[in-house]
Amino acid sequence: MKVLVIGGGGREHAVAKKLLSGESVDSVYCAPGNAGMKRDGITVVSIAQDNHDALIDLVKSEGIDWTFVGPEIPLFNGIVDDFQAAGLAIYGPTQAATQIEASKEFAKELMMKNDIPTGSYRSFDKYEEACRYVEEGPVPTVIKADGLAAGKGVVVAETKEEALAALKDMMCDEKFGSENTRVVIEEYLSGEEFSLMAFVSGEKVYPMVISQDHKRLLEGDKGLNTGGMGAYAPVAHIDESIIDQAVERILKPAAKGMVKNGTPFTGILYAGVMATNDGPKTIEFNARFGDPETQVLMNRLESDLGKAILAILNNEEPDLEWKTEGVSLGVVVAAAGYPASYKKQLPLNLPEENETLQLYFAGVTEKEGELVSDGGRIYLVEASADTIEEAQEVIYTALDSVNNPGCVYRKDIGHQAVKPQQIKSTAILNQHTL
Ligand code: AMP
Ligand code: GLY
Description:
Strand content: 25-35%
Distance between the termini: 47 Å
Structural class: alpha+beta
Largest sheet: 6 strands, antiparallel
Number of helices: 12
Mean pLDDT: 94
Bound molecules: adenosine monophosphate, glycine
Number of strands: 23
Helix content: 25-40%
Low-confidence stretches: 427-434
CATH superfamily of the largest domain: ATP-grasp fold, B domain
Shape: globular
């Protein structure tokens, strides 16, 4: 079987590599891919992810059996609709179904209609009304741009001043564009966050193991928000009962609700979940795999990924077996200065790959036959081991042994899982704040 993966980052590298390792898949194309993927035998095709016509032509000319979409942008642009209109098999949500990620308000309404636990919220078009709501409400509070904001549209405000400043930025100064001045003001949820993803097909939900990512740049979860500096899976200190509740009360009703809404969801559904004292509550939905969570999750999957997705595409039950022992941890190597300004074309001295240590590439390109950096997040080092501490040891020893001039990485990825407090369910199943 031949498969096309759309996208060009670490997440797509991990998906493509996993697909290729399965018996059912003979070759994997990745568009636009990146130069680092070639090391694993992935065929990199330089077609932009928004050039749907050229991608459709590629699938037809190469006899590709089906396509998988990694990033949100082509999904939001309706790549699934275009492929389906051309009679091609593709696994991902339609443009209508991507609203679950693209519009915070759509997601909130879905949750309200289907009794899905989340923070209480209100949306506002008028700046003065939003300000009054903040003035009269509690802090911390959370201000979210309703539409797309490249991951920067959420402000967790500790004070009223911060909240009001965020409203001014988004609503008056049009920080995320003149079409994106609507805001959602949300109840602050405290607890530990985790990522729960599932393969979804209409009402059918096949959950994966949970993971945690590290969004902040600096150790101790401080500094600027980034695209993710590391991740690990599973998250053993979050009780199985909390995960079960999240599947039953969040993912399954979301999938059902999308069908009822006339926007059935097929693809990877991602719930950002807060384990609160009142049980798991939804922070956000994404219509795709998380990055960098996917880079650690793929190694946890024992089954043939290509066979499983093909089964879902054919409306059959997929075989999805997950490892029950050990952990997988991933550390992102970034260019110093990221997520603000940083240098490109940095030479890379890469750790050696072996059975326990793998590399997933993101911002890289080729210069005179060598890989050099071409983005902020350059590559991720992943290790599988019995414990978090052992995986950390493998990764940090490997990274410390090579000289990476101009690169940075966090030295505390997985810290939540080292001597954690077990988070147990105290929830009353039917209680939530809406
Ligand atoms: P989002 O883009 O919706 O994932 O939000 C980015 C980050 O903001 C999340 O990963 C959380 O850490 C934080 N966040 C979002 N909503 C809330 C909330 N209601 N309460 C507390 N933290 C939140
Ligand atoms: N790791 C969070 C995301 O992919 O949105």
